[in-house]
Specification:
By secondary structure, the chain is mainly α. The protein is 64% helix and 1% strand. The protein has a domain of 68 residues.
Length: 475
């Protein structure tokens, strides 16, 4: 069983790498256009293609993908894709070294946005574009993209799709997962194109910057071609455009689909309403704390942190203690389920609120039957157990990782916020990893811990943990 499972996983990974090699065409073309060294992208593409072909044909198998195989393939894919995506960062003119390069690539593909670069503008434009492209590919999911374009995945696509998007309340837009993946990617591409046009024609940003920012907004990533993030432009119109698209990226994509189908009742869902309420309360409290003169910065940072985008227009690490604690709390809450945002997700918070209210009613009336519903749909005990387990794991991992970082010399604020920012795929934290700073100064061991946090946070734990379960390998 172990050999068969590993053989199938390596075969599928080879197919993925073969197609992932095509992604290097984008920075290669940019390097040629801007008269930069294009050979690193060519070599990276050829090397990735060669390894992909070797794995695909050396481990060819007729085995049908099972549910357990999905866990292994998804977890390994989200390690290998960032690993091969590290190649352009290893060699001149970037030359970050392996740990730093892998940190930057994992941060990109998991749409975290944490960086080890002290001066982003010093990178060649092709490398800047590659950073943003890694986030764009990772936002809607590289596996979802492969499912959309590769017919040979067949029925196995459903096993992969469910593992890459572990939504507590999954919704299929179409009967076939391949069609669902295509619909999601079509909406995603449409929003990205619209934002590029708005930034270029309305905000008057350079086309290169517009593309890079749009590639990082819809995946709620946070990379920009400037060290000072969006604040570097000092452009109010650009900030409002980015706010609008960050907000949209934090909404469940099935809602976007339903609205496009003219089913406007979708916005009446309880999760979406709680998303609006939390954002509204957070914005109001930040404006009260910072003063009305800082209303734009308050709105921007509330949306940016809750959607786990991580763009910055103000050094919020200098804000009041209450404002910083509020932003830290938003890192944990995150965006809606089924969006490109990270964190624990609004739908889980809503479910726990309902479950707690039900438990309180049963404490008063033990014989009462208290059905739990979300948007008029019943919630099974299995879903509630999964959500409670997830939240427990989330808090446990945050505590363990923070303690480990503390033993490596980080102060409490820096350790805890760095963990929250990477586990929630947010990016900037507080203290030593605040918005005006970066992660470059951390010891390599700390960077490895945070790389694991990004990986775990993007896949929401279970796909990774199942790889280490003996039961999975026994069949």
């Amino acid at each position: 069983m172990v050999r068969q499972r590993v053989t199938l996983a390596l075969h599928i990974l080879g197919i993925f790498l073969r197609f992932f090699a095509l992604a290097y065409i984008v920075p290669l073309a940019a390097a040629v256009y801007y008269n930069e060294d294009w050979r690193v992208y060519l070599y990276a593409s050829l090397f990735t293609l060669a390894i992909g072909l070797i794995l695909e044909f050396a481990f060819r198998t007729a085995r049908v993908m099972e549910r357990a195989d999905g866990f292994v393939i998804v977890a390994l894919t989200w390690l290998l894709i960032p690993l091969f995506g590290t190649l352009p960062f290893l060699f001149p003119p970037v030359g970050l070294g392996f740990i730093n390069g892998f940190f930057e690539a994992m941060s990109g593909f998991t749409t975290t946005g944490a960086t080890i670069l002290p001066a982003v503008e010093e990178l060649p434009r092709s490398a800047l574009l590659w950073r943003s492209l890694t986030q764009w590919l990772g936002g809607m999911g590289v596996i979802a993209l492969f499912i959309a374009i590769l017919p040979q995945l067949g029925v196995g696509g459903s096993q992969l799709f469910d593992r890459e998007f572990p939504d507590p309340l999954p919704e299929k837009l179409r009967p076939r997962f391949r069609t669902t993946a295509r619909v999601l990617w079509s909406i995603y591409i449409g929003f990205t194109a619209a934002q590029i046009l708005f930034l270029y024609f309305l905000a008057r940003l350079p086309i290169f910057d517009s593309v890079c920012i749009a590639f990082s907004t819809m995946p709620t990533g946070g990379f920009t071609p400037t060290t000072a993030s969006i604040g570097a432009y000092g452009n109010a119109t650009a900030e409002y455009i980015v706010m609008a698209f960050m907000f949209l990226a934090g909404v469940r994509f099935t809602i976007h689909y339903q609205i496009l189908q003219r089913r406007f009742s979708a916005i009446k869902g309880e999760e979406f309403r709680l998303y609006l309420v939390i954002l509204g309360i957070a914005i109001s409290l930040l404006i009260l704390a910072q003063g009305f003169g800082a209303y734009r910065e308050s709105i921007f940072q509330a949306i940016s942190i809750m959607t786990t985008t991580g763009f910055v227009t103000s050094d919020f690490d200098r804000w009041s203690s209450g404002a910083r604690m509020l932003l830290l709390a938003l890192m944990f809450v995150g965006a809606c389920g089924g969006s490109t945002g990270g964190g624990m997700k609004v739908v889980r918070a809503l479910t726990l609120i309902k479950h707690t209210r039900g438990m309180m009613r049963k404490a008063v009336s033990p014989k009462a039957v208290v059905p739990l519903k979300l948007s008029h749909k019943p919630l099974s005990e299995g879903i509630i157990r999964d959500i409670i387990s997830f939240v427990f794991l989330y808090i446990l991992i945050a505590i363990v990782a923070s303690i480990a970082l503390g033993f490596l010399g980080l102060d409490m604020e820096t350790a805890f916020s760095a963990t929250a920012a990477t586990l929630g795929n947010v990016g900037p934290g507080l203290g030593g990893v605040g918005p005006a700073l970066n992660y470059a100064w951390l010891p390599d061991a700390a960077k490895v811990i945070l790389i694991v946090c990004m990986w775990l946070g993007r896949l929401e734990f279970f796909a990774v943990f199942m790889m280490f379960s003996p039961r999975l390998w026994k069949g």
